[in-house]
Amino acid sequence: MSEKRTKMLTLWVTEDEHRRLLERCDGKQLATWMRQTCLDEKPARAGKLPSLAPALLRQLAGMGNNLNQTARKVNSGAWSGHDRVQVVAALMAIDAGLERLRHAVLEKGRDDDR
């Protein structure tokens, strides 16, 4: 993972200079193009993720919704410590399963690229 950017540069240009910079960046984001050009950075590989079926997307959205509701309930303090421990254990198991799923999807995407 790359280092987090913490510094911002401010550069004043004329309308004409701005237009010329935008023309040169060939539709890329200007800041990205300037980093690539000025710092000799290599562009990040734009990996194409496999498309997902709408039914699967709906199911994942519903799971995310349930997870948000659970997090709100856990954070409200309405559950006992024992209940919260059980929920956290279940969430860790879900996280591990999602991580396996993520790796499988990424592998499928690499296979599709070949």
Beta-strand percent range? under 5%
Question: Given the structure, what is the number of helices?
Answer: 4
What would you call the shape?
elongated
- Helix fraction by DSSP (H/I, runs of at least 4): 55-70%
Q: Structural class of the helices, strands and pairings?
A: mainly alpha
Q: What is the CA-CA span between the terminal residues?
A: 24 Å
Report the count of strand segments.
0
Summarize the helix and strand pattern as letters: HHHH
Rg over CA atoms, rounded to whole Å, is 22 Å
Number of domains: 2
* Low-pLDDT ranges: none
What characterizes the major β-sheet? none
Rounded mean pLDDT is 82
Topology of this protein?
Layout (H helix, E strand, L loop, with lengths): L14 H10 L5 H10 L14 H23 L4 H33 L1
Q: What would you note in describing this structure?
A:
This protein has 114 residues and is mainly alpha-helical. The protein folds into two domains: 1-46; 54-113, no CATH class. Helix content is 67%, strand content 0%. The protein is built from four helices and no strands. The longest helix has 33 residues, at 81-113. The radius of gyration is 22 Å and the shape is elongated.
